[in-house]
Amino acid sequence: MDTVYKDIDRRAHALLRRFFGYDSFRPGQLDIIRSIMSGRDTLALMPTGGGKSICYQIPAMLHEGCCIVVSPLISLMTDQVAGLNANGIPATAVNSGNAGNENRRALDEAVRGHMKLLYMSPERLLQEMERIDISRFVSLFAIDEAHCISQWGHDFRPEYSELNILKERFPDIPVIALTATADRITRDDIITQLKLKNPFIHIASFDRPNLSLKVLPNPGKSKRIGIISKLIDRYPDDSGIVYCLSRKGAESTNAELNLRGYRSIVYHAGLTPKKRDEAQRMFSDGDIQAVCATVAFGMGIDKSNIRWVVHNNMPRNMENYYQEIGRAGRDGMPSETVLFYSYADVATLQSFINESGQPVLNAEKLNRMKEYCESAVCRRRVLLSYFNETLDHDCGNCDVCLNPPERFDGTIITQMALSAVIRTGQQVGLTMLTDILRGSARAEIIERGYDRIKTYGVGRRLPFSEWNSYIGQMIQLGLLDMAYNDHNRLKVTPYGMSVLKGATTVMLSRYHPAKPAAKTSKKS
Ligand code: ADP
Ligand code: ZN
């Protein structure tokens, strides 16, 4: 096996050094390159900044012909092409930002075999496919931001769905799909939608241990500004981002910071394109300390010394949250993230969801975000388990770890719950599971025969809300997986199985009845 790859490895390394100036591949990159070179479809999940581009750029150079890269944004294409050309690699983009004859020339160059990489939008690719015989010069399709193809993803783009014809029309041209955010369900969906054949899947760790995680419930307005000011003071020569839910929120936070003498700017989709470019440039090149922005800010930001990210409002889902905090600390140095959590935000986000195309899915995602904010277990474990990655120890770099609630050995409680899940054939959700454990005699339980399983009623002594908290923690720790594309049914994960078999113990946080639901508090 290894000898087969020897030649590819050698040539790939040579290209890496010569054209990109790096000495070694990062974990996973070479495996992906080998997979593509053996003609296999490939799915690569790597966090932003993980080094996805090289994974198809090097195969593009190793292959005869040209790699077509599908990308959703012109700005991403432009950056990539400029970078490649600067390194002496023939690459070009076809898009609506270019003049018609420019596009024709670019395509022509590619057809004649003078280009190694050709960037286009999905709709453009489909258009061109009708006009020219792609198979004559294309060696590889790279689908960037591949989660855009899935309705389960957070950035669904209908144009991407059309890409399902690539494998039908060109079964022999390998496809590599790349994304920085995809939970298991989205991941599976990408494979189905693109019709990838027995793909090689590489999942890089999504852990960013240099980012500290902190959630602050119900801070008042002055406390928020106070915390942001302290962050700026701590890193006066670096910069940070304050994410706000609304343009108005971004404007007013920015005004507050300016009043305090900080070099802060604002960024949202309400600005003219010119103003937006200007803001982005000032942030990237200037000595701006803070940008107060909506989610419109960030795509394509590649600034290494972002030392902190504050969420002035709760993000709408964990994918967005992960992306947004991930803009800090790209250089690997310690960086801080703080999320201000309030019930008012939950209500606002809920109202958006009711108007969104997919209210059930989005409500579920919002719920997971809310649970993260209310977590009694290590936040990094919650975050990673959301992306189906198991962290089997507390991180020591989140507010829960630094200020832990009372813990107890929850192994037996966990085994009770997981065993009940298994005995129902993994067909129940959270409420039903709790009812089974507590020996409820409601009709559905009797009808389905759940009163006859061995763990029925074993948890009678704990109240419903307490069980709910513990099962919630089991989900957050990644012992149970709650599948939102399967009616939120609970499944025991491999990590959960190891607890069930007695190979691993589990610490749970002692449940204390909820504090009364506070509105945004006025104090401090
Ligand atoms: P992604 O597309 O995953 O967000 P990029 O492909 O833009 O990430 O890569 C992020 C940065 O890491 C780039 O500056 C890239 O040049 C750099 N990089 C990629 N691979 C390597 C490597 N093997 N060694 C060092 N730096 C690398
Ligand atoms: Zn932690």
From TrEMBL:
Its cofactor is Mg(2+); Zn(2+). Residues 33-200 form the Helicase ATP-binding domain. Signal peptide: none annotated. It catalyses: Couples ATP hydrolysis with the unwinding of duplex DNA by translocating in the 3'-5' direction. CDD domains: DEXHc_RecQ (cd17920), SF2_C_RecQ (cd18794). PROSITE patterns: HELICASE_ATP_BIND_1, HELICASE_CTER, HRDC. InterPro entries: DEAD/DEAH_box_helicase_dom (IPR011545), DNA_helicase_ATP-dep_RecQ (IPR004589), DNA_helicase_ATP-dep_RecQ_bac (IPR006293), Helicase_ATP-bd (IPR014001), Helicase_C-like (IPR001650), HRDC-like_sf (IPR010997), HRDC_dom (IPR002121), HRDC_dom_sf (IPR044876). Residues 227-372 form the Helicase C-terminal domain. Belongs to the helicase family. RecQ subfamily. NCBIfam families: recQ, recQ_fam. This is DNA helicase RecQ. GO terms for molecular function: helicase activity. Coiled coil: none annotated. Its EC number is 5.6.2.4. Keywords: ATP-binding, DNA damage, DNA recombination, DNA repair, DNA-binding, Helicase, Hydrolase, Isomerase, Metal-binding, Nucleotide-binding, Zinc. It is an enzyme of class 5 (isomerase). It holds the Pfam family RecQ_Zn_bind.
